[in-house]
Amino acid sequence: MPRRREGRLVDLEVDILGAGIELQAEEGDFYGFALAKRIADHAGAATLTAHGTLYKALSRLAERGLVQSEWEDPAIAADEGRPRRRLYRVTGAGAVAHRAETEQRTAVAPHPRTAFA
Amino acid sequence: MSAVTLGPDDDLELEASARIRHRAAGTADAAVLAWCRWYTADLPDEVAAERRAELASDLFEEREHSGAGATGSILGRAVRGIPADLAWRGARLRRAAIGAPRGTFPLAMPALAHLAAIALVVWGGFIVWRIARSVVIRDWHGATDVAELSVAGLVLALVGSWLLVVARRRAFAGLVLAVAAYLLIRFGTYALMETSVTFTAYFSSSTAQMVLLNRVATGAAVLFFLSMAAWWTAPKAVEAAQPDEASS
Fold it and tell me: Is ipTM beyond 0.85?
């Protein structure tokens, strides 16, 4: 796993926040499998993020206040005959952190020669 | 977002929710959920219930999306996630330890108990292997009940080690392991004597010392596991120390 730099997000966290913001815009919130599927679709990957990796990262983001979660109303899950979903939302702080991280990553690195100019 | 915030009894409802299986679910799903039950077994109830319910939901949704073809993906995701599962579990246990009252040793005591249980299982396995080997080569001259009690001791040691994983069963595990320790050390030593020429020679030359050693070792091991049972009989405040675990 890549070493985390202070205040920065690791690749998976950027992917989670990015995919989460998209899903949230479409559905209002998102849950684990939908998130894993969206991340894989973006990356063009055949495999989904591992369960442990995904939920550990979501737990870490929740602790930092970048996502928040609530459990789905049990009546809705019961009506559809499935287990309850844990519904996540990217918080305002999460959206800001994602934007800042994306901008830092896409910023053009200075040409080596300019460092000696 | 049609959602609810968890109440104090909702971990039971989540456990019930986690038992719902997709019609296409197979042994792979059961194995993944069993692994989850194992690594969450001694975590606080709310934290464990949330992880199990979240994983059950993920498996259901993947089956709903891909049907029977999801088996390979489900197994692959579970195996690749094992390091993260264990790291998450470790972090949760450390957090519980930080919030625990002084003198409860929420990490050291289970670790010591697991270590002792493993040592007992290894000893029992060695004894039973020696007995089995002697029987196979027709060299067993010991009493049948010594062999039977040794095998029973190993079975009890395995059951006790399994029970030890679940926090709320640790007191009972201590009792089971105390009986196992008595059988495996008291009678296991005699079984070993029947299967080892060196041990027999040593026992014959120092009988009084060996009998004393056998009784002291048996007493110490039984006392250790009984103390463990007593330690976990009284409710510890570890679980109660972090009521907001589930909200993170």
Answer: yes
